[in-house]
């Protein structure tokens, strides 16, 4: 399996995510956690909060749409695993975000920037889990 190295587009994307997190905190006093944003869309008790969450989600969907409109091609998504493996992975990640109290964006970007011990621990945990998973899949199983 070949992994593409795209430092410029990755740095640009990371800068946009960081800017989004800073602006959300500066303008709304909120932490940018993608799973919390999506999960909050399931509640309708606060109209202004729901509208903010919907706007953030629409913004996340607007970027690939803008790329498609500007370049004529959308982002290439190549997932070299089966649909059941993707579904199982999604369930595992869902449990992880539930029991870990957040996701990679909430802990990894915003929590670490605030020097939260809980977020630093969570980030170390999911990074170690990712390293072990990639090692096992690529070098032990050989997929």
UniProtKB/TrEMBL annotation:
Primary localisation category: membrane
Gene Ontology cellular component terms for the protein in this record: plasma membrane
Cited InterPro entries: Sulf_transp_TsuA/YedE
Swiss-Prot/TrEMBL keywords: Cell inner membrane, Cell membrane, Membrane, Transmembrane, Transmembrane helix, Transport
Family: Belongs to the TsuA/YedE (TC 9.B.102) family.
Keyword Transport belongs to the record: yes
Topology relative to the membrane: Multi-pass membrane protein
Protein name: Sulphur transport domain-containing protein
Subcellular location: Cell inner membrane
Organism in which the protein naturally occurs: Pseudooceanicola marinus
Keyword Glycosyltransferase attributed: no
Residue stretches spanning the membrane: 12-38, 50-69, 81-99, 120-141
């Amino acid at each position: 399996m070949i992994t593409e190295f795209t430092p410029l587009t990755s740095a640009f994307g990371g800068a946009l995510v960081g800017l989004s997190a800073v602006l959300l905190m500066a303008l709304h006093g909120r932490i940018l956690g993608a799973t919390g944003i999506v999960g909050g869309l399931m509640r309708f008790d606060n109209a202004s909060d729901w509208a903010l969450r919907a706007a953030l989600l629409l913004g996340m969907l607007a970027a690939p749409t803008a790329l498609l409109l500007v370049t004529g091609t959308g982002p290439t998504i190549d997932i070299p695993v089966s649909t059941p493996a993707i579904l199982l992975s999604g369930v595992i990640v869902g449990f992880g975000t539930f029991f870990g109290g957040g996701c990679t964006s909430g802990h990894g970007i915003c929590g670490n920037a605030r020097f939260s011990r809980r977020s630093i621990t969570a980030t170390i945990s999911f990074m170690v889990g990712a390293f072990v998973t990639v090692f096992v899949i690529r070098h032990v199983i050989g997929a």
